[in-house]
Amino acid sequence: MPPHQGLVHQTEYDWRDSNVQLINSEIDHKVKYKSATTEPAWNNGLIGASPGLYIFRIEHFEVIPWPESKYGEFHEGDSYIILHSENVGEREGGGEKEHLIHDVYFWLGKYTTQDEAGTAAYKTVELDDFLHGAATQHRELQNSPSEDFLALFPRLRILRGGVESGFTHMEEAQEKEEEVNTLLRIFKHPGARDGVIVVEVEPVWQNLDENDVFVLDRGDKAWVWQGSKCAPMEKMKAAQVVNDLTIAKHVDVEVLAQSEARSKVFVGYLGGEDVDVLGTRFSAERPVRGVVEGRDDVKKEKKLFRISDAQGELAFDLVKDGASIGENDLDGNDVFLLHSGPVVWVWEGKGASSRERAMWLQIAQNYVQRMQDRSPISIAKAVEGHESRAFWTAVRA
Question: Where is the Gelsolin-like domain (predicted)?
Answer without folding.
Answer: 67-150, 198-246
